[in-house]
Amino acid sequence: MKDDFVGVIRFDLHEVPTRVPPDSPLAPQWYRLEDKKGDRNEAFTDAWHSDAITPPDMSASAANHIRSKVYHSPRMGNPFWNEDLMFVAAEPFDEHLIITVEDRKGQGKEETLGKSSSDTEEEKKVKFASKLHARISLDGGYHVLNESTYYSSDLRPSMKQLWKSSIGVLELGILNADGLHPMKTRDGRGTADTFCVAKYCQKWVRTRTIIDSLSPKYNEQYTWEVYDPATVLTIGVFDNGHIAGNKDTKIGKVRIRISTLEAGRVYTHSYPLLVLQPSGLKKMGELHLAIRFSCTNMTNMMFLYGKPLLPKMHYSRPLSLMQTNTLRVHATNVLASRLSRAEPPLKKEVVEYMCDVDAHFWSMRRSKANFYRIISLLQSLIAIGKWFTDVCAWKNPVTTVLVHLLFVMLVCFPDLILPTVFLYMFLIGLWNYRYRPKNPPHMDTRISYADNTIPDELDEEFDTFPTTKGTDVVRRRYDRLRSIGAKVQSVLGDFAAQGERAQALLSWRDPRASVLFLTFCLFAAFVLYAIPFNVMALLAGFYTMRHPRFRSKYPSSPTNFFRRLPAKTDCLL
């Protein structure tokens, strides 16, 4: 008997991943076999290859995410859509792009007019009842985001030929975890079966699972090549539920931005593992890590700060926000499908937690956190405003006199204004060098506004989309959202009114106000032409910083004039 041909697998040698000796062995992956005709099938269901780290094949469930949308259109001879659709495709591109033309008969009734299946690797001619013109291409010039843009670990284009040379090496040592919270009960006592997952660039690593320990010691080391310092390394800790047939439970994660690390320095630090649950914020333990970023080309890294973050295609042919969000969902699904077929598999809940798939969902807590972040940014401007108010009020006469002298010097020598500003910022930066962070920043409960959140807001944050709560709960949350929206609406209306009053100065909506303003402009033009600018600047500065004895308790005339100008609020329904 002769040996029968079962199938063949082809690999591009330049696409074979490499492994640095400290890293763990590469996870085995599933591959589809090709027969003599080039068709791919599951002829050998137990085939696996131990030297592949990136899953090359897409499962049947993920195939739905590369199908075209169905466009409902009346039956006609030559329908014309002229739309560009983008999908996420994973190497080795062994799935088919399926285009279906359907005619909608009514509600829930569609008639299939035809179907076209196109291989992304080979061009095939398919007989069809009518012609369907489609342009299909694999574009590797974009970077497919499978994670939140705030925590991106990779910014390179999909095509490997467009990658730039690396600027350094990132070394991570996952040492141990302390004080972990029990995740399950075994033999009448609390315990946990934990493992760590680290994600950076296209490389995901997973430590071994430490069974039955609340203080596991991993002592594993991994390395990555760094191509951009504006990227984030994410390390997550999970409880292995595969042993009991359950889902893997999240214990916490740590994010470290590469740009916050000093080159060549070893950071050994314990990071808190915090998890936000419907019952509130909970500290699950601490993770001890050792990190070092070694820069191989300091010049290239400095030049990177002046280059665009994303590949050129994102700027020459930018994607819309809807396309970006759709591609992110598809990419996350493809990634979860691939990693779930690895050996050992990374489950979908692990991939979604590491990629922060819920970062764009509505959350009252996140809204408050972002609001107070803006307030924190404005604190410096508010402090400067209060200081200048005190100067104008002469609360400290010595400071006020010095400000007057500085003001006179800058007005008489305007060429010194910009050099003084930049020199002042330089001195502030040198002064703050003493207080620079000694360790990379970690999760901050105060900034996240996680320690002051009421239970109902947490319950709303963990609600599904669409909601599964009762009518009374949804009505209460809707009323609360309406009250917040009313305040935002009032603030936006005030901003719009101020801008409309400024437009009313020259629009003759109030004829008398326009006459007064035009008269003032004509008079100011002659005065500014006759009097040197330096003198006018000195007079304006001295008038602004005049002594309180020469001030009135009532609003100034320009303020009263501006508030009397009409806005379009009286035209609103």
Automatic annotation (TrEMBL):
Principal location listed in the UniProt entry: membrane
Domain of life: Eukaryota
Family according to the record: Belongs to the MCTP family.
Residues passing through the membrane, by range: 371-389, 401-433, 515-543
Ranges in coiled-coil conformation: none
Keywords: Calcium, Membrane, Repeat, Transmembrane, Transmembrane helix
Membrane topology term: Multi-pass membrane protein
Protein name in UniProt: C2 domain-containing protein
Gene3D superfamilies noted in UniProt: C2 domain (2.60.40.150)
Cell compartments where the protein resides: Membrane
PANTHER family xrefs: MULTIPLE C2 DOMAIN AND TRANSMEMBRANE REGION PROTEIN 9, PHOSPHORIBOSYLANTHRANILATE TRANSFERASE ISOFORM 1
Classification via Pfam families: C2 (PF00168), PRT_C (PF08372)
Cellular component GO terms, alphabetical: membrane
PROSITE patterns: C2
Domain C2: 1-133, 151-271
